[in-house]
Structure formats: C-alpha cells, structure tokens
Design a protein that fits this description.
10 strands; eight-stranded parallel barrel; 11 helices; two-stranded antiparallel sheet
Length: 302
C-alpha cells in the first residue's frame, strides 16, 4: 500500500514525482531542524556531482561540481559500542540533494531471521540523520550489496520477499521525510540480488512496489553487460545515474563508452543529473577534468 500522500499526488498529477506537496509539515520532527536553512545554492539545468563524505562538500564545489552526493554509513550515522546506531552531527554549507551507502554490511536486510524491527529502527535513525542535511525531495540510493545479499543458506524466494518488505519500509519512511529511495542494481560480484536495470524493474513489478525508481550505474552496467538499448527503453523508470570509467577510475581516464551510455538515457527521456562514483587519488586535483569529461560526453548538458 502506498503512503497516503503519494496516492494523493498520483491522483492529482498522474505520477509519483510531482512535487505538489506541503513539505514543511514533514520536515520538523523527522530530523530536519526548524532553524533557518543554509543559503540555497543555484543549481545547473543539468547538474553534475560526485560521491564523497559530506565534509568534502566545499572541495567538490570548488572543483566545479554542482553538488556533493554524501555517503551515509560512517559519515551521517555511526555504531555505538553496544551495536546501536546513532546520528553523527554534520553542518554542511549547503543542503545535500542525494545520498549513497544507506545500510551497513553487518545488517542483513534480506535475512528473514533478522527482526524487522531491527531493520526499521536503523532506517529511522539513518533517515532522520539524512533529513537533517538534505534538500527537500533528496534521493537516497539503496545499493548496499553486502547488506542485501541473500546468501546460500536462505531460499531465494524468502530472501527476495524480505528485501521487498524492507524496500517498502524504506520507501515509506523516506516519503514521510520528503525524501526518495532509488533502487540500485549491483553487479554479481557485490550482491546476489538484482544485477541489472531490467532485473530491478522486474523485481519492483513482481512485488508490486510502486513509487521506487531505479539507478543506472555505468560501472554495474558494464560489468553485467547490460544493453544500452534496455536502458533507453527503461529510462522512464530511472531516477538517478552514476558514472565512472574503466574499473571505477575517474571519467576521462579510461575507455568506457560514457557518451553512448548517457545518450541512450537521454534518448529514453532521462533529464536529471549525473553523479560521478569512482576511486580518487586526489579529489581536488582530479575532479575538474572528470567533470569536464562527463559534461562533454553528455548530450543532455546545458
């Protein structure tokens, strides 16, 4: 069952992504403070960002990024000695439009033997911490390969059903805070569940999960050999994009078909931003050239 406010938006506007919502009612009391926000940052028509810890925001912006996509585990939430999770105070200069690394690998969300209350309690803490620094409508990437791996000891159908349950809990808790969960397919080396954009769409349909869009990540697309034709066909279901170059080096330093990847998404109707997710030797030194390579490759660049 969809959250009431999601149903209302769909009824009025025909899709989940219309933002005709009174968001201020859900901010206070769900992690966002009632104090004045940092000054808004002017956003590009098509924004380009980078994944990094939130304390690297100013470095990323100074290097030419339009935004920083903050990591979550170990940055916005951390484990106490007793195993409970607590929020970590953060005070970025600008609110954050997207987040990654939602669930720690130690919390096996696809294992039915793990109490669902344990999972939902973690999500409440994490989403409150995210909401405290997030832009309204910010996206949260649900990849978390180790956490969602089913493993050989659990029947696939049972593990899949449990992950679907957790995904719905995360979706609804995020919507209550004016946030959006997006589901990331991961290559088979990182998880045994949902490896491609097409599998993600099939999983959502099979479990009748509405209101969750999909992440298209060039790294996982390349490792799984997913056709760009599939991405073009399913672009209307894609809500977020990650890019890297060969083996997750910075864009422009390898030979992966970044331009073809982005062109397929743009032809299919994807109009939103692009986040770089890769390994860096020196973020400040390498990011300007990487951003230039992505902008040059993207036919949707303003």
């Amino acid at each position: 069952m969809l959250p009431r406010r999601v149903q209302d938006v769909e009824a009025r506007h025909g899709n989940f992504w219309a933002r005709a919502l009174e968001t201020t009612q859900c901010r206070v009391g769900h992690g966002r403070t009632a104090v004045a926000d940092p000054p808004p940052r002017r956003r590009a028509v098509v924004p380009y960002g980078v994944i990094a810890p939130i304390d690297q925001q100013e470095t990323a912006l100074a290097a030419g990024a339009d935004y920083l996509e903050s990591t979550i585990v170990g940055v916005l939430v951390d484990a106490e000695d007793d195993g409970r999770w607590r929020p970590v105070h953060a005070a970025p200069a600008h609110r954050v439009p997207s987040f990654a690394i939602l669930v720690p690998g130690t919390l096996r969300v696809s294992d039915p033997s793990v109490p669902i209350r344990e999972v939902s309690s973690y999500l409440e803490v994490a989403l409150d911490a995210i909401a405290a620094v997030a832009e309204p409508g910010a996206k949260i990437v649900f990849g978390s390969g180790a956490a969602r791996t089913i493993g050989p000891e659990i029947p696939v159908a049972e593990g899949s059903a449990r992950f679907a349950e957790v995904l719905v809990i995360a979706r609804d808790a995020a919507w209550a805070r004016d946030l959006e969960i997006v589901l990331e397919p991961l290559n088979a080396g990182e998880s045994d569940l949902i490896h491609s954009v097409q599998e993600a769409a099939g999983f959502l349909d099979a479990h009748d999960i509405q209101g969750v869009r999909i992440v298209a990540d060039l790294y996982h697309v390349q490792l799984e050999g997913e056709s760009f034709d599939v991405l073009e066909r399913l672009a209307g279901r894609i809500g977020h994009v990650h890019v890297a170059d060969s083996g997750r080096i910075p864009p422009g330093q390898g030979d992966w078909p970044l331009s073809d990847f982005l062109a397929a998404l743009r032809r299919g109707g994807y109009r939103e931003g692009v986040t770089i997710e890769c390994s860096w030797k020196d973020l400040a030194a390498e990011l300007p050239a990487a951003l230039a390579a992505v902008r040059e490759a993207d036919p949707g660049a303003a």
